[in-house]
């Protein structure tokens, strides 16, 4: 689903993700960590991607923004536990 959106745009998912992130309120610059000039060139590609309103809406649907402190999470949002390694939402570690 996410990959097909980027394929429809003719862009790499990482570049679309950076372009979308740059369009978010309050984001002045994403932190990137290229290890090669090719990766840097790819990240800079995001500056030349223009996302229309429909694409923004679809990306916001796929990746709901976090709720402000004290608010309920966006419908369908799954958040990892603060103790969980990236990508895990299971049980806490044994004491």
- How many DSSP helices? 4
- Give average pLDDT, whole number: 77
Order of helices and strands: HHHH
Could you give a short account of the major beta sheet?
Answer: none
**Secondary structure tally: strands:** 0
Binned, the helix content reads 25-40%
Cα separation of the termini? 39 Å
Q: What percent of residues are in strands?
A: under 5%
Structural class call reads: mainly alpha
Shape, principal axes of CA atoms: globular
Offer a quick outline of the entry.
By secondary structure, this protein is mainly alpha-helical.
Task: Give a topology summary.
Elements (H helix, E strand, L loop, with lengths): L1 H8 L3 H10 L14 H9 L7 H10 L33
What does this structure look like?
With 95 residues, the chain is an all-alpha fold. The protein is 39% helix and 0% strand. The chain is built from four helices and no strands.
Short key terms for the protein model shown above:
0% strand, globular
């Amino acid at each position: 689903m996410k990959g097909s959106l980027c394929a429809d745009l003719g862009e790499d998912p990482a570049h679309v993700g950076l372009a979308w992130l740059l369009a978010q309120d309050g984001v002045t610059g994403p932190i990137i960590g290229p290890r090669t000039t090719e990766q840097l060139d790819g990240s800079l590609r995001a500056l030349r991607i223009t996302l229309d309103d429909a694409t923004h809406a679809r990306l916001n649907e796929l990746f709901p923004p976090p709720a402000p402190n004290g608010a309920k999470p966006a419908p369908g949002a799954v958040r990892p536990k603060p103790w969980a390694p990236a990508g895990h939402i299971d049980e806490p570690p044994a004491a």
